[in-house]
Design a protein that fits this description.
The chain has eleven helices and eleven strands. By secondary structure, it is of the alpha/beta class. The protein folds into two domains: 183 residues, Rossmann fold, CATH 3.40.50; 116 residues, Rossmann fold (3-Layer(aba) Sandwich). α1 runs parallel beside α9 and α6 packs parallel to α11. The chain is elongated, with a radius of gyration of 22 Å. The protein binds adenosine-5'-diphosphate. Its main location: cytoplasm. Homotetramer.
Length: 328
C-alpha cells in the first residue's frame, strides 16, 4: 500500500447504539495500529469532540470487547454539535491534537453531522453504518441489524408459546423507526399471521380479512407483527379496532422495545463490523472522505455520505407475498 495520507485518527459512536459497535471500534483501533496510525477514542459521540473527551487507544484497549453489546465509547445525541459554535470547539480540539480524520459510527443523523463538519473544516470523515434499523443506503446490512432481528425472533417465538396455549391474538411491535426490515423478517421467521410495515399501505379491512381467513382455516391463535413506524395507527389503536371487530378475541399487545438494542452481537454482526472497521481505516488511508464504508454482495464499497443519507434501502416486497402465502 502506498504511503498513508493520515497519521492520527479519532473514532466515535453516535446516535442510537447497536450491538456490534464495539466490534467496529476494535477493528478501527487494531487496523490503525497495524498501519502505524495513532488512534483516539472520543467519548459520547460528538459531545466528546466538543468537550475534549479523548482517550488514546491501542490494541489492548479493545481486548475482549468483540463479544459485548453497546459501545465502550458510549453514545450520545449532541445538540451542541448542531450549532456552528459547537462544531468550532470540536474542530479546535482536533487541531490541538493533530488529528487528521474521523471515523463516525452511527446512523444517518451521525453521517449528516460528519458531512457538515467536513464541509466546514475540511476534516476527513468516513462513516460506518451502526443501527439496528437497517435503513442506510450503500450497505446490504447495517451493524446491529442481524442481532436485533434475532432478538426479535426469539422474543416472538416465546410469545407464540403462550399465544398457542391460550388461543390468543398477539400484536407485537418491533423497532425500526421508519423502516420495516426487522418487522418483515422477524414476521416471516416466526410465521406471523400478518406483518404491518410503513413501506406498504395497510388497511383495517385487509387486516380483518386476514383474521377471517385464518379463522376459516382453523387457526386458533395468531401473531401480528407491527413495525414501530406503521402508518395505519399505533399498535394500541390496531388492537382496539380488532377487539371492536372481533369481540370474542382475547387480544394482547407486546412492545418489545429496547431489548432489541442490547445483547452480545451475532456472528454476522461481528464479522460485518470487523470488515467495516478495517474498511474505514483503509478508505481514509487511500484518501476517501465524506463516504460511508459498506458491504454490498460481499464487497467493501464506499458510498458518498450524501447518497447514504438521501436514498433508502428497499425492502423486498416479494417477502410480503411469501408471508401471506405461508402464514395460513
Ligand atoms: P443516528 O445517527 O442514530 O441517526 P441522531 O439522528 O440522533 O442519531 O444523530 C446523532 C447525532 O449526530 C446528533 O445528536 C447530532 O449530534 C449529530 N447530527 C445529526 N444531524 C445533524 C446536523 N444536521 N448537523 C450537525 N450535527 C448533526
Amino acid at each position: 500500500m502506498s504511503e498513508s495520507l493520515i497519521s492520527k485518527i479519532g473514532v466515535l459512536t453516535s446516535g442510537g447504539d447497536s450491538p456490534g459497535m464495539n466490534a467496529a471500534i476494535r477493528a478501527v483501533v487494531r487496523t490503525a495500529n497495524h498501519y502505524n496510525i495513532e488512534c483516539y477514542g472520543i467519548r459520547e459521540g460528538y459531545n466528546g469532540l466538543i468537550h475534549d473527551d479523548f482517550t488514546r487507544m491501542g490494541p489492548r484497549s479493545v481486548k475482549n470487547i468483540i463479544t459485548e453489546g453497546g459501545t465502550i465509547l458510549k453514545s450520545a445525541r449532541s445538540l451542541e454539535f448542531k450549532t456552528t459554535e459547537g462544531r468550532k470547539k470540536a474542530y479546535e480540539n482536533l487541531v490541538k491534537r493533530g488529528i487528521d480524520a474521523l471515523v463516525c459510527i452511527g446512523g444517518d443523523g451521525t453521517f449528516r453531522g460528519a458531512k457538515i463538519f467536513s464541509e466546514e473544516y475540511g476534516i476527513r470523515v468516513i462513516g460506518i453504518p451502526g443501527t439496528i434499523d437497517n435503513d442506510i443506503f450503500g450497505t446490504d446490512n447495517t451493524i446491529g441489524y442481524d442481532t436485533a432481528l434475532n432478538t426479535a425472533m426469539d422474543a416472538i417465538d416465546k410469545i407464540r408459546d403462550t399465544a398457542t396455549s391460550h388461543n390468543r391474538v398477539f400484536f407485537v411491535e418491533v423497532m425500526g423507526r421508519d423502516a420495516g426490515f426487522i418487522a418483515l423478517n422477524s414476521g416471516i421467521a416466526t410465521g406471523a399471521l400478518d406483518i404491518l410495515i410503513p413501506e406498504k399501505k395497510d388497511s383495517i379491512e385487509e387486516l380483518f380479512a386476514t383474521f377471517e381467513k385464518a379463522e376459516k382455516a382453523g387457526k386458533s391463535s395468531s401473531i401480528v407483527v407491527v413495525a414501530e413506524g406503521e402508518q395505519l395507527g399505533s399498535i394500541y389503536d390496531l388492537a382496539k379496532a380488532t377487539k371492536n371487530g372481533f369481540p370474542d378475541y382475547d387480544i394482547r399487545v407486546v412492545v418489545l422495545g429496547h431489548i432489541q438494542r442490547g445483547g452480545s452481537p451475532s456472528c454476522a454482526d461481528r464479522v460485518l463490523a470487523s470488515q467495516l472497521g478495517y474498511g474505514a481505516v483503509i478508505g481514509l488511508m487511500e484518501g476517501q472522505t465524506k463516504v460511508m464504508a459498506g458491504m454490498q454482495s460481499n464487497k467493501l464499497v464506499y458510498t458518498p455520505i450524501e447518497e447514504a443519507i438521501k436514498k433508502h434501502n428497499e425492502i423486498d416486497k416479494n417477502l410480503l407475498t411469501i408471508s401471506e402465502i405461508l402464514a395460513i
